[in-house]
Amino acid sequence: MVWTQYVVDERGRADPASIDIIYSDHPALNSAVRNSRVRMRFTPATRRGQPVRQKLEQTLRFDPAAVRP
After folding, report:
1. Helix (H, G, I), strand (E, B) or coil at 36
2. What pLDDT is stored for residue 68 in this prediction?
3. Which site from 2, 20, 43, 45 is most exposed, i.e. has the minimal number of CB atoms within 10 Å?
4. How far apart are CA 43 and CA 12, in angstroms?
5. Which one is predicted more confidently, 67 or 34?
6. Structure confidence by residue, pLDDT tens digits, 12-51
7. What Cα–Cα distance (Å) separates residue 23 from each residue in 7, 10, 52, 66?
8. What CA–CA distance (Å, rounded) separates 5 from 25?
9. What does the DSSP 8-state code read for residue 9?
């Protein structure tokens, strides 16, 4: 499991400098989570119809038994 916080900017991209790993079951997961957040695209939050930055918290759970060789 990895619990993370990050900011999604007005363009729907995670700000790499904002990515913070709050908790992780295994350190090897940290870089994978950081890299995946940067590659992902999000729908930005809006205020009064305009896109705005928004801080997110997300918990990701990994099931090693679900991985097939």
Report:
1. helix
2. 63
3. 43
4. 5
5. 34
6. 999 999 999 999 998 889 999 999 999 999 999 999 999 9
7. 17, 26, 27, 22
8. 16
9. -
**DSSP secondary-structure letter at 54?**
E
Rg (CA), the chain: 14
Least Cα distance to 29 among 64, 63, 2 occurs for 2
Instruction: Classify 42 as helix, strand or coil.
Output: coil
Round to whole Å and give the CA distance between 43 and 56: 12
Tokens of 3: 């619990």
Which residue, 12, 1, 21, is CA-closest to 64? Answer: 1
Residue 38's nearest CA partner among 10, 58, 16, 67 is 16
Are residues 22 and 5 in contact, defined by beta-carbon separation less than 8 angstroms?
yes
Q: What is the pLDDT of residue 28?
A: 87
